[in-house]
Every structure is written in structure tokens, then in C-alpha cells.
Amino acid sequence: MKKTRLMKIVLKRTGAFKLLCTYIVVFVAVSIGIMIVEPNINRLIDSLWYSFSVATTIGFGDITAVTIIGRILSIFLSICSILIIAVVPGIITSYYIESTKLREKESSAKFLDDLERLPELSKEELTALSERVKNFNKKKK
């Protein structure tokens, strides 16, 4: 549940959500276009199935495009799908790396601030700081 919420936040902040929504619209539009132009695809469910097999580059072969327009739409959907599969994970990974760097930077700044105020810190704060230094040294080794 928490990971799903985090994924939604990342998708919205990075703009990938709009990209995915646009892709879904393109997918449905191409499916409808295929249904209209292809003589052997008469139902929307068959068109969606065909579009799915094209989008995932599986190409089952149970339904095929025979018209030029149908083939062009299939190529267009394949290219869009490959781009989405390549771009969205990259956006999410980049966002994760940047947020991790930011957290590290904030943690380092807090640590340096504590060191600058060393004489002012309470016994509990000094103990916590000492533990952080020990943990840091353990991770380093």
C-alpha cells in the first residue's frame, strides 16, 4: 500500500503520470482505428487484444493487420510502447537517485551542524551523535 502511494507521488511529480495517461489514450485510439480499418477485426475486445500483442511486441499472430493503415497504426503503437517502456522506468530511477542524494546531503548538513554546536549539545544529543559516527564507521568498513 505504501509503495503504491509512493509510486503515484513519483509519477505525478516527474510528469510520468501525464505520459502514461497520454499513452493509454493513444493505445485506445489506435485500437479503435484498427477496429475500423481492419476487415478481420470487428470487435473492440479483439482490437484491444491485437493492440496489446503489438504493444508488448509479443505478436501472437492469432490476429494480424492486413491493410496499410492498420500496419502503420501497428508500427506507431509499437514505437510508442517501446518509448514508454524505456522512458518511465528511467524517470522513476532518476527521481529515486536524486531524492537519495538529497537525503544524504541533508543528513550530512545536519551532522556538520551538530559538530559545530558540540559544546551546546545535551548529553543525550552527544550520545546520539556518537552512535551515528559509530554506525557511519561500520558502514564504511
Automatic annotation (TrEMBL):
It is found in: Membrane. InterPro entries: K_chnl_dom, VG_K_chnl. Residues 25-96 form the Potassium channel domain. Keywords: Ion channel, Ion transport, Membrane, Transmembrane, Transmembrane helix, Transport. The chain crosses the membrane at residues 20-37, 49-69, 76-97. One of its GO terms (molecular function) is voltage-gated potassium channel activity. It is a multi-pass membrane protein. Gene3D superfamilies: 1.10.287.70. One of its GO terms (cellular component) is voltage-gated potassium channel complex. GO terms for biological process: action potential. It holds the Pfam family Ion_trans_2. The keyword DNA repair does not apply. This is Two pore domain potassium channel family protein. It comes from Ruminococcus bovis.
